């Protein structure tokens, strides 16, 4: 299936590393130019006076370029080329960790988690917005028939299960005509195919879970759909077999929101139209006697009694259906209305001709190679979509010519249970400062109920839900303005304010009031978008991305593919709706609850590890470059290299690469602590471990270490009798020892592997150099043997390590003791082994600071993303995130309980 070519994704860290690389490149050019000029000046003024340098009086025409080019060669390793290779390697490992994580295997279906995209794991740790589908993502997509209303009588209200309702069972056994007709529609108005197993049981193959639930429920109520051969459907009811011949199938589409069958009752030869669909797709087409104008007042009110106002001569029956739909929606159940009517033979024949003609135009298009999916996902989406849409519209229009005057029989209510662990996952991730948007194709009330039950929105008084609605552009604008105004006022209050909008209003908002809607997106932590199309889902992702937020989209069906591809990170749930979403996604998981682990454990560790690895790569390259630069000051700025080429090559490839690669195993905190205290994800989201400020820290560290190594090795070994190779080897040894200690100091959790990599690497350094010292042709014959025998060598190494590490250790100790970050606090608690106290009671967050920051934030401005950078080795919690439009509640620890009495404050807005 062609979905177009998704754009390659670049993580925030990659972008930052690219920026830092650019800065280092500029620095390198400046150094080369300055030293090049200085070298030429020194050569002309001083070097030519020295007879032993043997400079010729007249050099070649490119003489001026020689020294700068030498420096360019010396400084070329300033940008570590190895960083790309190392990062690719560790990113591959991060992905493997996700694949191997046995705690993210869905045991029900034995689906392991899978990372398709190996390059963006760090972004998981920086997610700020999660846009989630509802059905199949938050819910199980395992439909269970719970209640129904047939001819105005409610079944299943007492015990919550219509299948066990004595009254309904009685009505079935007594053969009540309405109930039998209702059950017939439940059993056969679908595209389900019954098959018989070897044991004689009837199994149903259904495209949608709703249809499966209805057929199963009908079978439970003795209306057993047991055979479909060709166009003939056979149903068994109370031991008598009923046959129906399907004449036409009017398929379900998301625009029509209903499906119908035209069939002939083989018992009496009558032609019947059976329909089932959403209330707004069935009730407006009810028979004249029951006709009412189905006014979509859901846009204005939440309250059941006034939500759907029947106009004109609405009978009690109709009121009952409307009431049933609303009652069921408030319980979070999915509703379908069932209806039928008898067709006259001539009416059917006339319509049938039109229907076939309309269908043939659609079929022609499909035969011509423009398949539906291709059209929906191809690059020239808009154009093809309109062509496709026209043919679809023609079919829909013909369908509607027959789908009227319906006799509504009743309403079914199907439960789609929340997946296990969804409320906890959402609560934890919200504590981690992640905002949630729910984008669903379902009804508004059902969506709100689901949102409440999964901690998505908080009930009053903690939460407030604002509604954006309207039938016309003007109404939508006014509603949007009101909500925006309320949002601005309530931003400073510690209250969860969410907004709800439906596809219709969203269309106006996105096309005409994009700016205002974008502002709303910045202000709102939570949103519920109902009745949205796949393309609207993608547009919403785009809006959040345009505000510079890191977005994660999660969904399970083909209708989520565009949103998943559009987001920074796409997560697919490999559920009952097939693998379309999982295949298009960067990560696929079996259940929504695994998202918690994916973000807090894998995302966070990946971010931390990459932050260390990338900055360390710059540190070690800069260290050796700085030593070369310092050496030029005592070598007549001639661009002479202190180190031989073998050492330089081995430095990056062997001596310094292994220990740092093992940092992929490093864990600053245990997984349990991280999940218990999700607030610490803030450090990753705000980019606190890799930014220009922390990079400056590493830059300073390499400069300082270069000074230490250079001064000590020159003072100890640059005397008359020593060789250049000896000085070089002492300096190199100093670098290797220092980098081993730096890695050891930055490692939080030691395993045998880490010890082996760090100290084994050091031993490896000596082994390699002893081998080279044994080779007469290597240029460093006997050097290492001689050095290792001298106490002065070991004293120098000790001095370098002590002088290089002690200030860094001192800074670290000072920070750890007097200005500990939340991470340090948790580390201390872990180390002491005691119960980890609430972070809030250990060190309260200075709230006024946050509020002050928020009040100064101009909400009409796009989000300012500059986090407050702290100097050297920064990870202090005191700096708050000015970028966020809402106060970051670092210590919100109270759980959000979901109470059913959600405020219907939408009327006020
Ligand atoms: Mg879905």
Automatic annotation (TrEMBL):
Residues 582-821 form the P-type ATPase C-terminal domain. Mg(2+) binds at residues 133, 135, 556, 560. GO terms for biological process: phospholipid translocation. PANTHER family: PHOSPHOLIPID-TRANSPORTING ATPASE (PTHR24092:SF19), PROBABLE PHOSPHOLIPID-TRANSPORTING ATPASE (PTHR24092). It comes from Arachis hypogaea (Peanut). Residues 875-909 have a biased composition (Polar residues). This is Phospholipid-transporting ATPase. It is found in: Membrane. Pfam families: Cation_ATPase (PF13246), PhoLip_ATPase_C (PF16212). Belongs to the cation transport ATPase (P-type) (TC 3.A.3) family. Type IV subfamily.
